[in-house]
Amino acid sequence: MAQLHSTTSCSSANLVSHGAKRAIQAVVSSERELETSSAMKGRALRGKLNKVVLAYSGGLDTSVIVPWLRENYGCDVVCFTADVGQGVKEMEGLEEKAKASGACQLVVKDLKEEFVREYIFPCLRAGAIYERKYLLGTSMARPIIAKAMVDVAREVGADAVSHGCTGKGNDQVRFELTFFALNPELNVVAPWREWEIKGREDAIEYAKKHNVPVPVTKKSIYSRDRNLWHLSHEGDILEDPANEPNEDMYMMTTDPKDAPDQPEYVEIGIVSGLPVSVNGKELSPASLLSELNEIGGRHGIGRVDMVENRLVGMKSRGVYETPGGTILFTAARELESLTLDRETIQVKDSLALKYAELVYAGRWFDPLRESMDAFMEKITVTTTGSVTLKLYKGSVSVVGRTSPYSLYRQDISSFENGQIYDQADATGFIRLYGLPMRVRAMLEKGL
């Protein structure tokens, strides 16, 4: 991951770039913008901050937030963008957009490998699924972005962080709980909870008033969030739970009816509860997930349509595409059927529900989740082996599983009599196991 080795003032005229293709980029304001910034510092409307790190996407909302922060808090604005696999198009032109909005610096970090290794894989190992359906795509991404923002704030000497989340959603909580956990001294600015802007038209007018070019990208009728794990869709006709989604809404997955007419078999290699290979080929976490997204996507795998309970109290309807993640959850679950005993699986399943709730609620850095994660790591140490799955027109079915630590014994499970399991022993077991039911029946019959 790229790191900022030397911090330049936002009034400097240098372009800072270190390391890899998408390291850290500093976008420097023009002299006109600096003069505007100085003027704004003299008339901050809501208090005074020195420098704010803003979670930045380059869209209309975050483009407007930049001048709003400068006007209302008299501060320099450092835009931060995390690459968590949202796609090349989402990353294009960010330097120019940030500069045009009045930001003094843009920081971009490639977090894809860390995202999969440190956030997605632990949730996969834990079996964390929110309300039986949601694989936590957005929930897992927010804490790694917020953590990186805290790091950047330290690197550039910022005294505040800001995000563009609305006051109705879950993401505001996820960002801010991470800020609280990692640096409680940082100020947090949430414009959507403060400003008078009510919607897209207000934002456009504000942008024009402050000479901020309005992004010319076509406005989607859906609210979407994409990363390497999933793509979510909300809004428009989806706001009525009775409406079937339009097929042209989907972007990661083929319509199952148009998927290949022949099934495809895929073998997932797993070591200690974490996937390491696809069809015998070892891959990095991000590369492995990308490979499975492509495979699962063409077979229409991983579509989920659900009404969920948001943390803030309301219900919302969302449609999710998680092709690679659906394959991995199926594989992990099937391998555990070999390697974990009944009591362990039951406890793991009960804790997985709480684990998912904590992640959904933004409590990634809560000691409880971290402690539960240690438990999950411990009990899956022998969950090693491979699972072969059949993908066919939207379905994933297991066709084979093997593990050197398998608790399945064919000589015991066979219907044939053997030395280890004597079928006659079942008589006493059943009489003792059923004794409470037998006593209750005797009581009811007066025996």
Which runs of at least 5 residues are low in confidence (pLDDT < 50)?
Answer: 1-9, 11-42
- Mean pLDDT, all residues: 90
- The secondary structure category is alpha/beta
Beta fraction of the residues? Answer: 15-25%
- Total number of β-strand segments? 14
General form: elongated
Biggest sheet details: 5 strands, parallel
- CATH architecture name of the largest domain: 3-Layer(aba) Sandwich
CATH class of the largest domain: Alpha Beta
Our Rg estimate from Cα atoms comes to 26 Å
Strand order of the largest sheet: 3-2-1-4-5
What do we call the CATH homologous superfamily of the largest domain? HUPs
Number of helices: 15
The CATH topology of the largest domain: Rossmann fold
The portion of residues assigned to helices is 40-55%
The total domain count is 3
Order of helices and strands: HEHEHHEHHEHEHEEEEEHEEHHHEEHHH
Distance between the termini: 75 Å
Topology, pairings included?
Layout: H1 31-41, E1 51-55, H2 60-73, E2 76-83, H3 88-91, H4 94-101, E3 105-110, H5 112-126, H6 137-156, E4 160-162, H7 171-182, E5 187-189, H8 200-209, E6 223-226, E7 231-234, E8 264-271, E9 274-278, E10 281-282, H9 285-298, E11 303-309, E12 315-321, H10 323-339, H11 342-360, H12 367-379, E13 385-392, E14 395-402, H13 410-413, H14 425-433, H15 435-444
Parallel strand pairs: 1-2, 1-4, 2-3, 4-5
Antiparallel strand pairs: 6-7, 7-12, 8-9, 8-13, 9-10, 11-12, 13-14
Helix pairs in contact: 2-8, 5-6, 5-9, 6-7, 9-10, 11-12
EC number: 6.3.4.5
Subunit structure: Homotetramer.
Pathway: Amino-acid biosynthesis; L-arginine biosynthesis; L-arginine from L-ornithine and carbamoyl phosphate: step 2/3
